[in-house]
Amino acid sequence: MSERLDYILKQALTPDQKPDLLLNRKILNQIKEKEEMKIRKRKWVPGIVFSLVFILAAGSGVAYAAYKLLNAEEAAEKAGDEKLARAFSGEDAVEINETQHFEDFDVTLLGIASGENLAEHITEKNGEILSDRSYIVTAVTRTDGNPMPENLSDAAYDNMRFFISPLIQGCDPMRVNIVSMDGVYTEFVQDGTLYRLTECSNIEIFADRTVYLCVSDADQSSPFGYNEEAYTFDNTTGAISRRENYEGVNALFVLPLDKELADPEAAEEYLSAFEPGEESGDDYAAWSREADAFMSEITPENIEQYADCIEESVHVFGSKEDEVWYDYTMPDGEHIRRLMSRERVSGWQDRHVRPHSVF
Amino acid sequence: MSDRIAYFDYEIDALKIVTFTLNKDGTVTGAVYLPRVSDS
User: Fold this and answer.
1) Contact residues, chain A, for B25 at CB < 8 Å
2) Is residue B9 included in any domain, yes or no?
């Protein structure tokens, strides 16, 4: 009964035209203020849904996302980051709730938050803490009403890998995307919906350009790389577009960034590392695709078949150590430093989350 | 020794895989792996 009702509501509310984003946000914020506690404390019941839909249907095509999904704050909380959850309810965040529909999946961009030290969980690269970051929450649901598999290592996910990344107008998306922008993501399944919390370098410095978020099927040859069959890049204008005849998921959102936060000089400096011909440009893209392809074969169960453990690197942390730096110096002198957070390790296992940090 | 590998990440520049494994006794094992397959 509820699935049928879901279907009817969804069909009725699927927009023919994109509603005004600010109006959506205003309405959603008003609803949130009035209904937040009710929604969070109760499970989904038709009565509540009807009352919300009635209000939202007048001006919004995103009602389905509004009543059914976690919001960005709740998703961050579920991912185990209370500090980030607070950031998503503060001034550094923009609540979006825009859904794009595809044959097999609905993709919703829930919200974005950017700034210095917004998250509890630290991301570091080669021992350096990356503190100025953007965090983007997306949700993916199946259109056939079936839930996404609870366990992300489930073989069923082999055909449900998604590439989610900010893309920047004027920058070749093959070269500048989540992989090269120090991206990390965490994902989990809640009530049949796949949520992904993506973080990368702060993209607000690009706010004077169009900044997109793409959500596509993963490239079969490189599940963690940009899928160029799903989008087009106009070399003249720098615009990125959905490839209309693409059969699959190729969502493309425009991120509502505050243009006043743009920093063209910082953006220029940031992008200089990705210029064509530089070793870190074309070669990096090829390298990353190769590495991604390799990593796509790695699972917790088969890692021993593909890689050798450096015995000297093995370090056992005691059962009481909650958050400790893991350090190891490679034979060639390179220093590897990672944060071992017990909460992250055990929390991810409990929630069947299998994150990949891409550095 | 362990239940499973709960978390791993990697560096692309010179592929290295860092794993954190939650063990049955509550300890956590950190380790670095190097790919066995060459990049050819």
Assistant:
1) 319
2) yes
Domain encompassing residue B26? 2-33
Q: Residue-wise over B9-33: b if at least 16 C-beta within 10 A, else e?
A: bbbbeebbbbbbbbeeeebbbbbbb
Query: Tell me: the pLDDT tens digits for A101-120?
Result: 999 999 999 999 999 999 98
Two tokens, residue A352:
């069947």
Q: What angle do CA A119, A175, A337 make, to 5 degrees?
A: 40
Provide the pairing of β-strand A356-358 with B2-11.
parallel
Tokens 């793409």 locate to A214
A127 backbone φψ class: left, alpha, beta (φ>0; ψ -120 to 50): left
Q: Nearest residue on chain A to B13, judged by CA atoms?
A: A287
- Looking at the structure of chain B, the number of domains it has is 1
ipTM of predicted complex: 0.84
Residues in CB range of A158: below 8 A, 6 or more apart: none
> Residues 6 or more apart from A187 whose CB is under 8 A from it?
A152, A194, A195, A196, A197, A353, A355
Q: Would residue B39 count as lying in a domain? A: no
Q: Is the pLDDT at A167 greater than 70, yes or no? A: yes
Mean pLDDT (whole number) for A259-273: 92
Q: Residue for token digits 């998921």?
A: A249
Are the C-beta atoms of residues A35 and A50 closer than 8 Å to each other?
no
Say whether B17 and A303 touch across the interface (CB within 8 A).
yes
What dihedral angle (degrees, nearest 10) is formed by the CA atoms of A25, A30, A33, A34? -140
CB contact under 8 A, A306 and B36: yes
Does residue B25 form part of some domain? yes
Predicted TM-score (pTM) of the model is 0.59
